[in-house]
Design a protein that fits this description.
464 residues; 71% helix
Length: 464
Amino acid sequence: MVKDSFGLEITTDSSAAVDAINSFVDRLFSVGNDADVILKAVEADPTCAIANAQVAAFYLFAGGVASTQATFYLNAAKANLKTANEREKLYVAAIEAWANRDIQQAIAYHEAITVVYPRDLVSVHIAQFHYRNCGNSQGMLGIAEKVFAANQDNPYIYGMLAFGLEECHQIPEAEKYARQAIALKRDNRWAHHAIAHVLETAGRLEEGITLMESLSDTWEYTSSAFYGHLWWHTSLYYLDIENFAKVVEIYDTRIWGRAKKDSGREQINAIALLLRLELRGVDVGSRWQELAGYLQPRIHEHVLAFLDLQYIYALVRGGKEDWAAQMLESMQDHAEKVLPYARRTWADIGIPAAKGMIAYARGDLKEAIAQLEPVLPELQSTGGSHAQRDLFEQIYLNALIRQRQYHQALNVLEKRQAARSNIPIIQRELANTYSQLGRTDEAHRASQLALELSQRYQKVEQTV
């Protein structure tokens, strides 16, 4: 019996297997670009249950076609459970539940691991991944808080805690731990991600650009999807200061230009940015058509409703109406077969939202509003982060304004203005809405602020 870098016992006599597991863990936490190092652990000891389970987790994280490869290694892990220790048995059970899409059960196993083995941060990391995809921000934070005291020597726990805090709207605390994580380990890319959320939520745009680009040299060593995602976050700052040429450049050179184009995660980075550009009135040319051509494997995948809402929009915008129709039918079939705990998310929230996204993509704004309005408050259960799901509110707001439903639009705009008062587009839309409602003084103030902000950010553009 040997121990890994966290002092946790591993059932193997192979030091090479343990070295590979340790390397995998470091790549996992830093979102490194060679996490497939875990395959060397199984090569060194094919009977090591935890090594096989980690390989299965690696393929499940990859998603898509790759996730089917998890079955072989999961079966190998289960075949060697007789010699495994209690933690390894719990971990294998958690990965099996994940493979079976029983995420509630998977989370229960990960929570059980933290009670006796709080140093198992891989288990915590996967639990946070599941909590986020279920829209359970408090669970995401809670599990990190539970093990924090036992892991204060590890720089990665600070980033894990920071992201949980941010998703629970505890912004100052999130920033504190994210900065501490980066101070302890500059290439702590999960912490870069957390602070990107913090600064975007707070509307600290110039600071976000400066900080993210100062760290971007370390992103060359991250996975392709996360490289694109960190640049996606950076592009949101440029989007809000209205340097649209820079956003398009990032899309072409950093996000889609360097993407593994058959990767669902990288497709989502691209879709989410193209859609935001169009909401700002930017002509994205033939980019939808190019992207949509890669989306056929997504039609029957249904990992998260949050993802499907974006895929189906891109199919319509990219001229793949037949694929979009197939996908909607497949989503409806999936909603009937999914495990009971997830049925409402798919049937009562995901399907109407998908119909709303299709309607918006077709320019049927009235139908888009009718479908999106009832489900917007519940979209958190479909997955994704607050920053990612904000896209759907932006679509709903855009549809309201274009349909001249100004009273409803004002409710959304005033909420957005209260959260981020220094965004030019919000102030311009407020000015227009106030004007349409005859509130002249408020319209003038918002218009003046929009002008001042635009002038301020033009100076930023000149320095980057």
